[in-house]
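About this split. The held-out portion is used to measure sequence recovery: a designer receives only the structure tokens and must propose an amino acid at every position. Recovery is the fraction of positions where the proposal matches the reference. Here is one held-out target exactly as it appears in the evaluation file.
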């Protein structure tokens, strides 16, 4: 059984967060999963998944009613793709979390990116002190 602990950035109501999944068989080097919920995100998804390369060990994508190339883009990037009818954001994100096998999960939206500096900070936290219980993400919003 997994114990879920949630940490969210205080800068936004919705967005990326890291979630630590504590399991009895946790490895010495923590694994990091990425979880995304998507609907017609072909415009953004490729760049998001590219920003995760070398940072995460697996990507889980929950698609709901997608009619564009989103699923193809996700599969070509090596993501595990599952389908679920959309009922609300909370249930969609929880469903994506339930499939993640990592010790930590980065919950990210398709229009968000992990910068190189953030990638180094995340890997450093995961490879460093095992007592770390959360990771706060600073956001930069770009409008127009």
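Reference sequence for scoring:
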């Amino acid at each position: 059984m997994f114990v879920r602990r949630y940490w969210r950035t205080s800068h936004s109501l919705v967005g990326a967060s890291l979630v630590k999944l504590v399991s009895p068989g946790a490895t010495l080097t923590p694994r990091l999963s990425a979880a995304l919920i998507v609907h017609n995100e072909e415009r953004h998804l490729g760049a998001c998944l590219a920003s995760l390369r070398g940072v995460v060990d697996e990507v889980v994508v929950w698609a709901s009613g997608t009619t564009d190339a989103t699923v193809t883009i996700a599969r070509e990037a090596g993501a595990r793709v599952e389908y679920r009818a959309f009922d609300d954001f909370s249930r969609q994100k929880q469903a994506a979390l339930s499939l993640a096998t990592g010790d930590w999960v980065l919950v990210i939206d398709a229009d968000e990116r992990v910068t190189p500096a953030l990638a180094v900070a995340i890997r450093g936290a995961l490879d460093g002190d095992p007592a770390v219980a959360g990771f706060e993400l600073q956001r930069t919003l770009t409008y127009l």
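Annotator remark: Confidence is low (pLDDT under 50) at residues 1-15.
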